[in-house]
User: What shape does this take?
Amino acid sequence: MKHLLLTTIAAVLLGASTVEVFGEEKRQKQIASSNKELTGSTNGGTVFVTLVSHFDRPWTMSSKDLAALQTLTKNHPKVRWTHLFNPVSYTTPTPLLENIETFLKESQKKYFAEIGVHLHMYQTFVEGAGVEFRIKPSVSAKQAKGSFDRSGYSVPMSAYTGEEILRMLDFTLAQFKSRGFGVPKTFCAGFYTTSLELQNKIALKGFTSSAAAFPPGKEVGSQYAPSWHELAGWDTSVTIRSVPYRISKTTILPTGTQPFIQTVDGNPLVEIPQNCKIDWMVTAEDMKMIINHHVQFAKKGKSTAVCLAIHEGSADRYFTKFNDVLEYVDNLSENRNVQVKVQYATVSQVRAKFIEYWK
Assistant: This one.
């Protein structure tokens, strides 16, 4: 399909200076036209669409999963991915590690993706950071009391102390630096669990965006286990209609007010709600319906953001679903009858635009 030119320079925003060319001339023009800064008006009325990948179990990623992510990227060159990479890749043998790193760096350079952080409390990672490993509680149980997970996968990061969290963040930042990924700005702990302690610590360590607020309700799609609802920190104030918000010093919820948690750039830590849930929970039609809600909201003159989310290990399984949804977003972005701007952005780019709106 044909793509309209975006009138911005994302290469400047993300520090990229050149654009490497893919094969055919058409693809070259598409990529060149998309390497531009966001055009969202400070008067509102823009629907930003971000696509987040969660690296949960990098060692399980197959060549088909990697190919699926590569194909989604090439099929939809305007997408500004936010890949939330997991440094457990360096503490647990990961067969496709070199290929994954190559893909992520290519995404940064050619498609202006953002590389953020996603952490699960696996034993190799926790102990690699010099922290004592825990197996309880678990967010994947019938109840929080007495729950455990010997792998650490479903143990919330918020179950660790502030000092332990800082050690794990320091370890993560060191891994990113040594592997050439730069300084990550977006953070999400496993299962979207968080707390004021965790939010304060990520801000202290240089993160400026959180991608954790998750709708617990039954309005659309499946839900997490009962213990998740006890431990995750979210309530029904987070919905599929939620918009980005500044995180208060008194609550992680969107109901919070000033004063806000401040970050290293002098602006508040911003939450980008995961309002389309996660790949296995929703259908393509569910995601389109949620997008439509936000389009209608933007018609009232205010900007909003939709976050799509896919796991690295299920990219092949859900390829058709996400290709369909991205085609839908592509069409919306080109349809002048929609009456609002629909455009792709990374999580950090969404934050930057909303910081402008709030001033």
In short: Confidence is low (pLDDT under 50) at residues 1-44.
